[in-house]
Amino acid sequence: MTSADKPWLAHYAPRVVAELPPVTESLPQLIAHTVADFPRAVALDFLGATTSYRELGEQIERAAEGLRRRGVTHGDRVALVLPNCPEHIVAFYAVLRLGAVVVEHNPLYTARELRHQFEDHGARHAIVWQKVAQKVLDLPADLEVNTVISVDITASLPASKRFAMGLPLKAAREAKEKMWSPRPKGAVPWEDVLRGRRISRRVPVPEASDLAVIQYTSGTTGAPKGAMLTHANLITNTLQCRAWIPEIERGSGSVVYAMLPVFHAYGLTLGLTFAMSMGARLVLFPAFDPDLVLAAHKKHPATFLPAVPPIIHRLLARAEEKKVSLQGIRIGVSGGMPLDTTLIEKWESATGGVLVEGYGLSETSPILMINPLTDERHVGSIGIPVSSTVAKVVSRDDPETEVPVGEEGELTVRGPQLFRGYWKRPDETAAVLRDGWFRTGDVAVMDERGFFSIVDRIKELIITGGFNVSPSEVEEAIIALDGVLDAAVVGLPDPHSGEKVVAAVVTEPGAAFDAAAMRQTLREKLTPYKVPREIVQLDELPRNLIGKVLRKKVKEQLQQRS
């Protein structure tokens, strides 16, 4: 494509470069540069307890040696099952330092969900939040998870908060129950991994082209699959984010809020790797809690705040309720679902900063597009391609044919942040990657200025609160329930989460229908955001001539009933 084919370049903010040089180093090298450049700066802030970059670097090197002594080596997959906490950051870089591959997991996954992913990636080592470690220890023996390292995240809290958790008060007991449980038998304490010397410099660092992370996603179709992201993919996307906001300078004392989970692609790049490359203070929240965010804001307002609309809604409401000013938050980026104009106005009025919408997928590390941080932005669109990225809209029937400006088609993209493919799924990789272009599965329109808007979704993926939900995965869990003959799962519009998961079920003859009981049982099998908000009984599900359930028809039926 020539510059004439990239009308969006005319709308780049001043100082934003169109092309970035190729990445030649790995993530451990990138964090090592930051440690050397800003040793005394605060790297991590966990509810008030801080870690300097020098301390972070030392912990990474000790943890890498501890993992090496336990058998982790180049190319091994290592599962991380952790919330946002300092140990997560240390473990992430320590695994990568050995040339091993991080596999991120949601710590709220059920045993069933974890088993499916472990069966797929085959990790033999896991670093796990102590509260959920037993679920990993209980995985079937044939998965051969040889080492389960248990992390007590309360050990990283400020001393005052640890002391408060031990008080004989109901609030203290509830706070402790949320974050702590005894270390289960058979788990290795995280402290043992850190105990000892630093890793030898003779242990080689990985190459830029090496696999760094397997990020599970529902992809464009089907059940969750592992998107393979290299060191170069992740560093490129980090540099693309940095290039988009040149007004935030490296080493300037910037503050990044990790309200989004680091185990999610969005939180991983716009939170973790972005902050670490900048020498910024990364403020970690173990889960989104508006009161904790407001408390942190009073001390260190965010320079950069990645979020999703539900979080923005809740933070604004809580700040108004508690009469806390949000002034001082400079730049917010929202993704995962459309950003309402009214919400933008409320946020910018409350903060004095700017809030723009962006777009991406796990397969793209994840950022592809962001609105300019200038008056050039187009509210209601997903923005324009970031540096070194090109996009086009093609015919849904023929991906080789580009459609005219203003017409709908499938959004396809190309850039150095594109993933290597799906773990152990060459056919599914080939279906979405062709000649360097990635088919997103989203229906889009590009206007004459080069701004893109998502208008529909080819894939049947449900996006709720910024998280992807595979309908087939939820359907499988529902059909396994007693008395259920068939099920179809769809996403219906929701003002708070973008979409809500709704299930239509057909029960066996004579079986009782109890939606509340079904949802209760599903909570034991599925992460909370995957559990259907509503379950509706139908006499039958619409199907095509070969018997496939027509989810689009199901969706229409459910919308008519509401």
UniProtKB/TrEMBL annotation:
Domain AMP-dependent synthetase/ligase: from-to ranges: 33-423
UniProt keywords, alphabetically: Ligase
Keyword Ligase on entry: yes
CDD domains given in the database record: FC-FACS_FadD_like
Taxonomic superkingdom: Bacteria
Example of a GO MF term: ligase activity
One Pfam family here: AMP-binding_C
Occurrences of domain AMP-binding enzyme C-terminal (ranges): 473-548
PANTHER family with a match to the protein in the record: AMP-DEPENDENT SYNTHETASE AND LIGASE, LONG-CHAIN-FATTY-ACID--COA LIGASE
Protein name: Long-chain-fatty-acid--CoA ligase
Organism: Gryllotalpicola reticulitermitis
